[in-house]
Design brief:
Layout lengths: L14 H7 L4 E6 L3 H12 L1 H8 L3 E7 L15 E2 L2 H6 L5 E4 L7 H10 L4 E3 L2 H18 L3 E2 L11 H7 L5 E7 L2 H11 L5 H10 L8 H4 L2 H14 L19 H9 L2 E12 L6 E12 L11 E8 L3 E8 L3 H21 L20 E2 L1 E8 L4 H11 L4 E9 L2 E8 L2 E2 H12 L4 E10 L16 H7 L72
Parallel strand pairs: 1-2, 1-4, 2-3, 4-5, 5-6, 9-17
Antiparallel strand pairs: 7-8, 7-10, 8-9, 10-11, 12-16, 13-15, 13-17, 14-15
Helix pairs in contact: 2-13, 5-6, 6-11, 8-9, 14-15, 14-16
Length: about 550
């Protein structure tokens, strides 16, 4: 009562808020009951008391929307199932909506409907966020509720919240991720033995790491959606999956994976988002492609179906987050974390911070600059190397090193370039394919972070002029006594073919990683633990 004798007015409190303040459960609608949805429902039902004790909020499943209510789902009470998802998301008795359907529709319609009804949404739908994340985030902000999607990238690995909150003030320079377990498993199998892509894919399918139709994974589509999400958060801009150039791993020859390993690299499918250019005129490059990674880089130790995200910032330096990137239980764990946050935020009348998103200034793929690895199968005859080198020179692509393997009356040439513009390399490849002596253009792979520990340099950039003047009639042949299995490194001065200057491998230049006490391989360092073979739980990729 006030001093003037008037009674205090009662604070205005919504019935939902009042009920929550009395400890009532937060009621959750789950859309979809596949691997992740079923795992989440089992967690919420079987461990309700434990979750409440650990988090301070009690969660209760209000309903589970499915396409077929008659299908048996172990651990999911049949009474929770409904076929009417549209009614469930606007039910006044539902406090938070979890979308685990996947794809764009009806997921987009249902999430938009829930946000319009003032309900926080948690989703693991990378395709939805990559395509419509900015618009949905605006809708959530207008309604004053959460849109959370930690599980949309890298499963159980907490990467979304660190980028959105912990690193909000950091000037991130680059984010590099292994974000698809299927492709990482396939490339790991290929890199650990002479296994073809087809055989490694078949093994992944047998173990449940790859779908019957693996196109979304091996074609880079899954990773591209995740790259768009990571780029949007790390660089505070609106990147959609259509902005991300992508290349898959299909058709990478086992011979090139083995050559990379011999040179001190491993092959990984990478999602990359980085700033390029001079300060003040920087542009954002976002892309997905297979790449050579030095075997002493932390990402090289990520094997099997595991994922990792490597962040480089101006102040934080280098950070890496590592763990299981897929599977029902790991992904459900990430969804549960978001669900608890959404429930607590709702109770407090708040929402997670929504970072501002600007229109990105994207760098076209053809303007990206990095070193390249490429292989050619050529006729074993005089003048071939000079003709090949002339093509590189015409397109301003400088060769750092070259190796050869004999293939009967043909030869396999392996080149590593200095940093080159992507468009110039593609023009080089197009002209090489038209040379009569070139039988086949093999793998073309970008190289992460420049020089590798196993490179054998030429005596200088191998240009067209050097090849034409110093070695007009170089013949690609196997060299007796070569330290390269099946062949010898060749240099611009023709040392591989004549009694002239010693080969680079014999000089005091950088030695091969396998022969020196150079940087330790990732397998020998204290990095993330290697996956000990297939996931014993047999969990499947989302």
């Amino acid at each position: 009562m006030h001093a003037n004798g008037e009674a205090d007015s009662e604070p205005t409190t919504s019935p939902a808020r009042a009920a929550e303040d009395r400890g009532a459960a937060v009621r959750v609608a789950v859309l979809g009951c596949g691997n992740v949805g079923a795992a989440l429902v089992r967690l919420l039902v079987d461990d309700a008391d434990g979750i409440a004790a650990r988090s301070g909020v009690r969660l209760e499943v209000a309903g589970v929307a499915v396409a077929d209510v008659g299908r048996e789902r172990p651990g999911v009470p049949p009474g929770l199932l409904t076929a009417d998802a549209d009614a469930l998301v606007v039910d006044p008795g539902v406090d938070v909506v979890v979308e685990l359907i996947g794809g764009l529709e009806p997921a987009h319609r249902l999430v938009a409907s829930a946000l319009a009804a003032g309900k926080p949404v948690v989703t693991a739908n990378k395709a939805l966020i990559a395509a419509h994340g900015a618009a949905l985030a605006d809708a959530a902000a207008s309604a004053g509720v959460d849109l959370l999607y930690e599980a949309a990238v890298a499963g159980a690995i907490p990467i979304i919240r660190p980028l959105r909150e912990s690193l909000a003030g950091e000037r991130v320079r680059r984010v590099t991720g292994i974000v698809n377990g299927t492709t990482n498993f396939i490339l790991s199998v290929m890199g650990e033995g002479d296994v073809t892509y087809e055989a490694a894919l078949a093994e992944a399918q047998h173990l449940g790491y790859a779908e019957r139709d693996p196109t979304a994974d091996v074609g880079g589509h899954d990773a591209a959606a995740k790259a768009a999400i990571l780029a949007s958060l790390a660089f505070r801009c609106a990147v959609v999956d259509a902005d991300v150039p992508r290349e898959g791993i299909g058709g990478i020859p086992a011979a090139d994976v083995a050559s990379a390993r011999r040179m001190g690299f491993v092959v990984k499918l990478l999602a990359v988002a980085e700033l390029a250019g001079q300060a003040g005129a920087e542009r954002l490059s976002v892309r997905v492609h297979p790449a050579l990674v030095r075997d002493d880089h932390p990402l090289a130790a990520v094997r099997g179906a595991f994922n990792a995200v490597f962040i480089e910032g101006a102040s934080c330096g280098e950070l890496m987050l590592y763990g299981r990137g897929a599977g029902g239980a790991p992904t459900a764990s990430a969804v549960l974390g978001d669900l608890i946050d959404a429930a607590l935020n709702r109770r407090q009348g708040a929402a997670a911070p929504a970072p501002p998103r600007e229109h990105p200034r994207l760098l076209p793929l053809e303007d990206v600059r990095c070193p390249f690895y490429l292989s050619l199968e050529v006729a074993d005859e005089p003048g071939v190397l000079a003709a090949v080198a002339a093509v590189f020179g015409r397109h301003r692509v400088s060769i750092r090193s070259m190796e050869q393997d004999g293939l009967g009356d043909e030869a396999r040439l392996i080149f590593l370039t200095h940093v080159a513009r992507d468009g110039d390399v593609q023009a080089t490849l197009a002209e090489l394919a038209d040379l009569p002596a070139v039988r086949h253009v093999g793998a073309v792979l970008r190289v992460l972070d420049g020089d590798g520990p196993g490179l054998v340099p030429t005596s200088g950039p191998l240009t067209a002029a050097a090849a034409d003047v110093a070695a007009p009639d170089i013949t690609v042949t196997d060299m007796p006594g070569s330290d390269v299995p099946g062949g010898a490194p060749a240099t611009a001065d023709g040392a591989a073919d004549t009694a002239g200057p010693a080969r680079a491998a014999d000089t005091a230049g950088p030695a091969r990683a396998a022969d020196t006490a150079g940087p330790a391989r990732a397998a020998d360092t204290a990095g993330p633990a290697r996956a000990a073979g297939p996931d014993p739980g047999g969990t499947q990729r989302r």
